[in-house]
Design brief:
Blueprint (H helix, E strand, L loop, with lengths): L13 H13 L4 H9 L3 H11 L6 H14 L2 H7 L10 H17 L18 E2 L7 H7 L2 H5 L2 E2 L9
Parallel strand pairs: 1-2
Length: 163
């Protein structure tokens, strides 16, 4: 954790200040720590939030894009910390494999070993293609990133692209 060496002052009403103090106290934190945790959540919390958002059909496409951006932006030391513990039990096997493949691809790009939990997710039994157009499938078989191919998921993405 980095040393706090800067100060930020915000203006609030007495009522807002009292509400902030109550919320922080009920969480067992000082006001600064409580506010920072809300505004700048830890990488572990952010990863868990992204996984929870994948549980909702309406958010899935955006959540996958956000997850990709999140994984891509993590520094190697943050990557290892943020992804150590996770539970994908509430996700379908396809989404579990999609997330695992995204994590494996990001780990490879960062020249890191993927977290051990990705090995616990068995690959899909049947191929999943990003499109129903059969004419595109040979192309997807060719260009899909290796972690996705190993998990029987065929998409069109290159390194650094959203998968």
């Amino acid at each position: 954790m980095s040393v706090k060496s800067q100060q930020l002052q915000i203006r609030v009403t007495p009522r807002q200040k009292a509400a902030l103090k109550r919320s922080a106290a009920s969480a067992g934190l000082d006001v600064s720590t409580w506010v920072l945790a809300r505004v700048l959540p830890s990488e572990i919390d952010r990863f868990r939030d992204l996984l929870r958002s994948l549980e909702v059909d309406a958010n899935r496409r955006f959540a996958l894009a956000e997850l990709n951006d999140f994984l891509h932006a993590l520094a190697p030391i943050e990557f290892s910390t943020a992804l150590t513990e996770t539970s994908l039990d509430k996700l379908s096997p396809m989404l579990q494999n999609y997330v695992a493949a995204m994590v494996e691809l990001a780990a490879s790009q960062k020249k890191l070993a993927p977290p051990s939990w990705v090995r616990d997710i068995p690959p899909l039994e049947r191929p999943h293609f990003a499109t129903s157009l059969k004419s595109v499938r040979p192309y997807l078989l060719q260009v899909s990133p290796i972690p996705f191919k190993r998990r029987n998921i065929f998409i069109d993405a290159s390194i650094g692209a959203r998968v």
